[in-house]
Design goal:
homodimer; alpha+beta; two-stranded antiparallel ribbon; globular; FAD (chains A, B); AcylCoA_DH/oxidase_NM_dom_sf (chains A, B)
């Protein structure tokens, strides 16, 4: 059976030593998050994930969700109790406004808990995860009445939330959506239409489900400029706030999927369901974007989380499975064979996952802190800079962490040989679960286009220029540090590749947009690799500081892993640059019939 | 529902125009395989795969295999009839000796049929595939009596064959195996032990199952030098050749796996089962290697096959699914959106799979022809050269085609967005099925070690030197060809990377074998990429010859795709070289506890 231990120590190293979270204690909520409090909070979160969520991960996958003929959906054994424990522990409201029952702690801590929960049980973590996304959208765009009506009960776990965007004929291209909203004359609307791929759309966990639904108000303009966002409870609310009759909302079927079996993916039918506008008419996409950006960071975290749990299990197996002898002579001569962790190809694999996971965790927290700053700082310039970075990095986080996270789950599975292909081992589930993260919340190709087509050039390229300056500044400031030198050279080279790629787009993509499209995915990965490399030099610097204070096995491992990343992962940037500068000509040359 | 069309035209282009199969008509069996005969044979094979095997692929995955309490195993609906059609069409015996009922045609045609069948229905194709492997081992190492007893009925489809290597505690390291063989005194042996992961170990398709089993004769030396191969029929044979009582062979359970659900993966129990030695005592691995090499090429073909069928389905979807508009303006303004094949990122993905598939198909056939030459040529030097290449390229074919084949199935699935994650779409099955090919018949890390540790330096590096000479010779001979020039430069560069890597191993791995182990997988992929690049220049040259004879859409597509491969796939070789020359130091530096 699979194992999972939340990497609390590694998180604390990042928060305390690499990002120095204490210096943000002027932000609302951060003063409450002293180093001791953070350690206690994360320790509690880790316990919940390890002891409650992880034990029902494999069983949840095997059991899956069941839709009954009357439209009710049963979730796997233990999910309802786990949700109660999750909400009861205050995790849904961790970073939410205390006015509505939240704890007001940094969003950054919520991102950490999301990693642990998604590693322990990704299908489960989606239930509170979607609820938190819905809360965020309602908090920013909902009227006071809406907020008072829904937020406290969503935060305390009585009700859950979902997002309803996709329709059978449209996912990426939301301009095509057809779900209708007809004014009822009392300020509410009658919503009718069919939504598909609605995660957690129906379940037996909470007493009501608060759906956020994109729909088109009768007479609205065509395309994306005629889409509005509505809040649509599955069950009507009585005047006293209690849950009443069904509101014309039903689950028509659930999907038979490759993975995340424990989460019900529903076809949702809205049949004149009563809904209320969230935000302005025809500005639904804008309101939904609040939810989508958080959701994208959440999905990025799922990529890291599956990579981490797969890694932990591969390491445990590699230490235990005896097969062959070390090339340099038997390491455990008393045993019939050596554990496979002695083999360089096994270590290469484990090191490459480890080098990604630790940098990806840093990359997530670096940006989660920016999210806190963007929302909470009193300094407009600081807010703006944080928001610039978040805008730029959100597609990179989502695209790169889920692509590599999936690859790593596959690599970890490979360590098990034939046993990795057997369901009972539990590791093939990580591969199947990780796969969805590359697809939902905007498929990774769409993330790449968002990055190159929108984010890169926004405000005169302010975001990417700030990144160049920050990384370039670090390289300059530390140029004389002998211990860091072997890391800085490779990073400098790859930063150069990134800058050349950005320059190439400037010169070649404006007149010929296909050049941007054909290079977008490579650019996303190139920026991702340089970002992860930057995380590694920052971590190495902090590790060295700590080593000066005394020997520390964990910190010396950081320096080795940093070097591994530079030697073996970062060289990919040259290939990305080569592909980008090849341009779109051969990519676009064939006629449709020649495929 | 998924589609599949066997790429007969592409195969014929390779056999006739690229490899000029007619020049081998001095080999036994090749004279019978005139161009017309080949076309007719492949046309029949294609029909069987498209009309019989493909329609039961998805249903076979959904239904899976069932083991009954009495140990019987039921295969999915239609598999028995399909096997009868397959054997009845003469496909099992296609390349087998006519003395035992085979058709004696080139093995190369069998490799083609294996591609089509594995693309149409991989789980099914394993039943005849394993039988063909067992036939090959018995044909080379079995006594005349064994051959007369088993081969005709295996070739005509009455009985099937399997291979039994793995035990619970040993897969890669067969030296650890424990299954015992005790002489019965009558020339036969009593076999006892448990084998796991036995594909097609039990089924309801054929009247008997002929197991090839590795076991240790009482008193044999420890390790791999004490392993012998036995033929063990599930049911005893009566004196008149009819099938008698069970021979102490039973299926203890079947595995619940990630994919290939239509193929029963069995735990096999041998309880004093009567078996006969195949080949010499204690030389079982040697005898099994005949089967394993063919099986490895067969698994390589599965990688290509899943990549091809996934590609075909992704193309069909990309032409049909409407979403967004082309960056250069609407391509189909009358429709609500353009088909997604207009988007550069979609094309990039499809082109990269296409560029792999066509080169991989050539790579397979180039080596399948070498297999025919190695077995059938009357010229000893020609046989030796062919065998050198096969030895060198078998691990590359197995490792690279299955790694990239799987990646391509994932990429193809990505084109479907959320729909690709749903079982009914049929494309996630390709991903799950393709996954096993990276694992069985020697996990790909083991292939890499076989290549670098054994094959590369064998006979003074004769195999790799011949490859360098052949590719170098092509580059030189065609240096003045203006049309090929854009392809030759990149290939020259990558060939240089390969040569530098080989040289680096010579200088750095002998004294420090971990340097070979840490770079093995990268070297395998580097050699694979250069091989695929070489296939592309050969194909481009042939395509150009044909274009001189008149316009041909297929041939002009070849030239574009060749260029795409050079621009976008081949640049990976630099990263592989960088990783290899980084050596093993950081890879091996951490203590086991630091993972």
């Amino acid at each position: 059976m699979p194992v999972y231990k939340a990497p609390v120590d590694d998180t604390l190293f990042l928060l305390n030593d690499v990002f120095n979270i204490e210096r943000y204690n002027n932000l609302p909520g951060f003063a409450d998050a002293s180093s001791d409090v953070i350690e206690a909070v994360l320790g509690e979160g880790a316990k919940l994930c390890e002891e409650v969520l992880q034990p029902i991960n494999y069983s949840g996958d095997q059991e899956g969700c069941t839709r009954h003929p009357d439209g009710r959906v049963t979730t796997p054994k233990g999910f309802k109790e786990a949700y109660e424990a999750y909400a009861g522990g205050g995790w849904i409201g961790l970073a939410m406004d205390p006015e509505y029952g939240g704890q007001g702690l940094p969003y950054t801590l919520g991102a950490v808990m999301n990693e642990y929960a998604s590693a322990a049980n990704m299908a489960f973590a989606m239930y509170p995860g979607l609820t938190m996304g819905a809360i965020a959208a309602l908090y920013v765009h909902g009227s006071d009445e809406i907020k008072r009506t829904y937020l406290p009960k969503m935060i305390d776990g009585t009700w859950s939330g979902t997002m309803n965007l996709t329709e059978p004929h449209c996912g990426t291209d939301l301009g095509l959506l057809k779900t209708k909203a007809v004014p009822n004359g009392d300020g509410s609307y009658a919503i009718s239409g069919t939504k598909i791929f609605i995660s957690a759309g129906e379940q037996d966990i909470t007493g009501n489900i608060i759906h956020l639904v994109l729909a088109r108000i009768e007479g609205a303009p065509a395309g994306v400029k005629g889409i509005s966002l509505f809040v649509v409870p599955r069950n009507k609310l009585e005047a006293d706030g209690s849950v009443g009759a069904n509101n014309g909302v039903s689950c028509g079927s659930i999907e038979h999927k490759m993975g995340i079996h424990g989460n019900a993916t529903c076809v949702m039918n809205y049949d004149g369901a009563q809904g209320w506008l969230v935000g302005d008419e025809n500005r639904g996409l804008n309101a939904m974007f609040v939810m989508m950006n958080e959701a994208r960071l959440g999905v990025a975290i799922q990529g890291l989380a599956q990579s981490e749990v797969a890694y932990q299990n591969a390491v445990a197996y590699a230490k235990e499975r005896l097969q062959g002898r070390a090339l340099t002579g038997a390491k455990e001569p008393a045993k019939p064979a050596d554990p496979i962790i002695v083999h360089p190809d096994v270590r290469r694999t484990l090191m490459s996952i480890k080098a990604f996971n630790e940098a990806a965790r840093a990359f997530v927290l670096w940006n989660a802190l920016k999210s806190d700053i963007a929302h909470r700082s009193g300094d407009a310039a600081e807010r703006q800079a944080a928001d610039d970075q978040l805008g730029l990095m959100t597609p990179v986080l989502k695209g790169v962490l889920t692509d590599i996270g999936f690859d790593n789950a596959v690599k970890a599975q490979q360590m098990f040989g034939g046993h990795g292909y057997i369901a009972e081992t539990g590791v093939e589930q990580f591969v199947r679960d990780a796969r969805i993260a590359m697809i939902y919340e905007g498929a990774n190709g769409v993330q790449a286009m968002d990055l190159v087509g929108r984010k890169l050039g926004r405000d005169g390229g302010r975001g990417i220029m700030a990144f160049f300056n920050e990384v370039g500044g670090f390289l300059k400031e530390n140029a004389e540090d002998e211990a860091l030198k072997p890391l800085l050279g490779p990073l400098q080279l790859s930063l150069g590749h990134l800058q050349q790629a950005a320059m190439w787009f400037m010169n070649n993509a404006l007149a010929k947009p296909d050049n941007a499209g054909a290079g977008a995915s490579d650019f996303m990965h190139l920026l991702g690799l340089v970002s992860l490399g930057y995380m590694w030099v920052k971590m190495a610097k902090a590790a060295q500081e700590k080593l000066k204070a005394g020997a520390d096995e964990r910190m010396s491992a950081k320096l080795v892993t940093a070097r591994f990343f530079m030697e073996r992962t970062l060289p990919e940037t040259a290939a990305h640059l080569a592909r980008i500068t090849a341009g779109a000509d051969t990519t676009m040359a064939l006629s449709v019939e020649q495929f």
